[in-house]
Every structure is written in C-alpha cells, then in structure tokens.
Please model this.
Amino acid sequence: MTGLLFRSAGDVVSRLRRQRGLTDNELAKKADLRVGTLRDIETGVPPTDNQIEKLGESLNVSPDAIQLVAGEFPEELHSELLDNPDRALTVLENAFDTEPASSEEDVSLPDPVFTTDQGKLYNADCREILPQLEEESFDLIFADPPFNLNKDYGEKNGDDLAEDEYLRWSTEWIDQAIDLLKPGGAFFLYNLPSWNTHFAHYISRRLNLRHWITVDIKFGLPIPNRLYPSHYSLLYFVKGDSPKTFDPDRLPIDTCPHCGGEQNDYGGYKSKMNPKGVSLTDVWDDIPPVRHNKYLNRDANQLSLKLLHRVIGMASEEGDRVLDPFGGAGTTYAAAEIMGREWVGAELHDCSPIIERFEDLAEDKKHVAEIEEVVNLLFTEDALEKRMKYKDEFNFNFDDYDLSESIGGSVQQHLGSYEE
Model:
C-alpha cells in the first residue's frame, strides 16, 4: 500500500515553489496575492479558482494539473475513471514510461547491529527494514518518530522537512508498519497533537481508533503569544474490531502529598471501589519527562520508561512481539526485554546509546520494579503512612475502602504497625 502523494492543492503549490527556488514572498508577488494568503493555501486552505489560475500561471503549470496531482480530477473524467480505472493507470504508466519493480531485487534483511535472546536492532532507515519483515507478525507496534522540529539527531538528520514532505514520509512508514500488525494487534503513535490530527484520519482508513491519549508533560518554558503546550498525543489503534490484549494497570487514588487525603470525592462509593485501584483514563498526567542523568541515555530527548511499561503491559502479553521503528534511546526495547517480550527495532542514527544501555539494564530493571510497586492498588504505602499520621486531625476512616491489595498481610496487622 502506498502513502498519500499530497493532501491538497496547497501542498502541490508549496512543492513546485520550492523546486523553482522561489520564496513565498516571490511567488505571492508573481501571482498578485498577499503573502499571508499564499501561506494559508500552502497550509491547507482551499484556493479559489481565481487563485489557482494565478498560481498556475506563475509556476508555469496548468491549474488542472495542480488539482490532478492533489488528487482532484476534472469532473468530466469522473465517470471514465470509475468505469475504466485500469485504463487510467495504464495511461499514466505509459505516459511516464514506468516499469514495475523487479521481482528479482534482493530483499534480504541486513545483519542486525545488535541482538539479544529476545530482540534485534537494525542500524538503518525503517522504510528499508519494514517491507522485509513478515506480514502480520507483530502484536504491538509503538512509534515515536521525529516531530519535524529541526532537532539535531546526527549526520542523517532530515528533521526539517516541508509539511507535505513530512506527511508523505510519515504515511509511507505508517502503511509499511500496519502491514506487519497481527489481527487484534495494537498500534501506538506518539507525536505532537498538530501532526496526529492528520495521522488519526489517515490511519483510521485501515485500523480502528480506540483512544486518543493525552500525555501531560510540562517543561515550564515561557512561550509568548500562545497557550502553553503541555501535552503530547498518543494514538491507540487496533487492527480489527477488538484488541487481542487489553490489560491496563489500575492506579492508586490521587492523594494529598502532605496528609494522604483523597484529592477527589468518591462519595458513598468508597467501599465499592476496586481494591486494585482506579481505572486508567485517557489523560496520563503521571508520566515524568526524562531529565535526570540517572535515566538519560543520550543527548536528545527520550521517552519515559514508565510510558513504555504502561503501553507494553496494557496491549501485549509475555512472549508477544513488539516493533518500534524509531529506536531513539532504546526505551521501548529495554522495557520489552525486561517485561519478557520479543522485540525488533530500527534506528537510522547512532545506535551506540542503545547498545550501551543494554550492557547494563540493572537501573532500568530497578526502575520497572519501582513502577510496578505502585500500580494495581488503592493507596501507596506512603499515602497510607500519611493518612495514619493525620487520621484523627482529618477524621480519616480506613474502613471506607478495601485495602487488601494496598498492604502486605491483613488490614489490621498493617494498621497495627503504625499504632504508638
């Protein structure tokens, strides 16, 4: 399956302008348009017939040709295209003298740059690796691609593409990845909300959107003249009507860090709450940014192990196969390795941070153990200690909840250990 060529006539205009070495100011002047109008068109606002005429003349391309490349065919051709689609394809292939790809082309996988008993890492462009993997062979795909923010990832950077180029590049690897997903498998895409609005629509042609998850991460940087962006988007798709695996962790009740009191009012339903904790929502505000040198494995940004632990635990089982086409710091691979999943990954840039990380996973294993200590229970040990300390002052009643999953031994034994 192929990705979209262009999303709109504005994408075509943008590409043609850059091919001709024109700035937006220069093209706007030639076409007698305001530069703001041209920028609107290039970012997706549909041009009027008059505007497309002016732009076509300025770029020496017919307006119908611009619309055609954008996927809009002249109305008089609609019925012919529907009646004879194969003929239309043949005409295009003959016009450009294209030939089908050779079936004798070598499609063998390169040697992995790093392996474990559970995983393989390839130092290559994922678009070269994905087509050579077995179709429908992965239970979970997680992707955290470059956000196209012109960040420096090394000599093979390419993180400063024009919008249409970035979207076309993205749909190419997305289609390749979807082919590899098993029925019932999960596909997660982590990106900026502005990009995921496009990808949510595109991927929904082939997969079912189960959740749009908001990952709330604040960095505290001042940004003038706009609302402060404090979250990322995590799209969660399933191949088919229902997931093969869906087992999200439950979280402890949100409590006051000083006294251990509930931050939310559960009214008369406290005794009915699941002793394993509160259901996970689609707003994740407990994923910390990775800032401490203790967890950093490279200079560029990297994902929290807590995020990948949650995703992998929710949407896969021990022994399942996990794919991440953008290795980065190797967080997905480390989480999969520790959690007993098989994994395959690709990284275009320097793989040494990933390899060095795997030389000693002790810190990551410790971190995973710490994460698992505070899920699937109603109260953390720290919250219980604070509630006990302030039980008389705030009239905390331990009988309101089933604490069987929150403490070791019986409730009475645990509470007894705090009595003076």
Observations:
- The two ends are 69 Å apart (CA to CA).
